[in-house]
Design a protein that fits this description.
It is built from 11 helices and 7 strands. It has 251 residues and is α/β, with parallel strands linked by helices. Strand 6, helix 7 and strand 7 form a beta-alpha-beta unit. The radius of gyration is 17 Å and the shape is globular.
């Protein structure tokens, strides 16, 4: 089983959109895939038209009183399931801190481990912050993918993430950035695509273009390929999935 995560400190860069579309592409290839929506905003859950069954009660989940498998929901797409988010996810950080006082092990990794019996790929849609939760996610994921708009401020968030990895003795080589919302009419976007900064040496080659059709994911509450496989941005996500597979050992 491979576990991957989509993360960015900055909102509005295509993190959740990417997680949902990549999950669809993996499932479409017949790979049993589970998307865990760990962002309290619950955007991935909403885009896949799934709500949490009830309040997740992080304390009961972390203590094992509520099996995390009970929270899994099937989606409308074969081979793709989701653990939807609800507002109680906001309490997960606090509960992790309380639990860690007694148990220093990675509780997120423990929760994910049993899913290896049913899934080949776990995708984590992460909250946009540095915290104990994100640190455990970073430790758990085999690879992390960071969508970046081709701007200097976006590069700064990548550098901050890389520094966080170094400070916490994690492996920055597992960070793979890729450009999103690319507008080739902008000279800076063209410049960064032509000459990616050195810090992005482990980045993915396929850029995701800016496209108004992405907003229609909200109208359809569905991944892009589910309603328009031929759109340029849909084809870009298909190519991005192929890039991601090359960074993983099992696919």
């Amino acid at each position: 089983m491979e576990t991957i995560a989509f993360f960015n400190l900055k909102g509005g860069v295509g993190k959740t959109t990417s997680a949902v579309n990549i999950a669809w592409h993996a499932a479409n290839e017949g790979i049993p895939t589970l998307l865990w929506d760990l962002d309290p905003q619950g955007a991935a859950s909403w885009l896949l038209n799934r709500k949490a069954k009830s309040k997740s009660e992080p304390k009961k989940i972390l203590s094992g009183k509520t099996p995390i498998g009970n929270l899994v929901k099937a989606t409308d797409y074969e081979h793709l399931d989701i653990i939807p988010a609800d507002f109680s996810i906001r309490d997960l950080e606090q509960q992790l801190m309380l639990q860690s006082e007694q148990d220093k092990s990675n509780l997120i990794a423990k929760l994910i481990a049993p899913f290896s019996e049913n899934y080949a790929l776990i995708i984590l849609d992460c909250p946009p912050s540095f915290s104990l939760l994100s640190e455990q996610i970073f430790e758990t994921a085999n690879s992390l993918y960071l969508p970046l708009i081709p701007t200097y401020l976006s590069l700064r968030t990548f550098d901050q993430t890389r520094e966080f990895f170094k400070q916490n003795k994690l492996k920055p080589k597992r960070l793979h950035a890729f450009f999103t919302m690319v507008d080739r009419r902008r000279s800076l976007h063209r410049q960064m695509l032509a000459h990616p900064p050195r810090m992005l040496k482990n980045g993915l080659p396929t850029p995701i273009p800016y496209a108004a059709i992405v907003e229609k994911m909200g109208d359809h509450q569905a991944p892009l390929p589910a309603f328009d496989k031929n759109a340029t941005v849909s084809k870009a996500y298909a190519a991005l999935w192929q890039d991601i597979k090359k960074t993983l050992s099992e696919f």
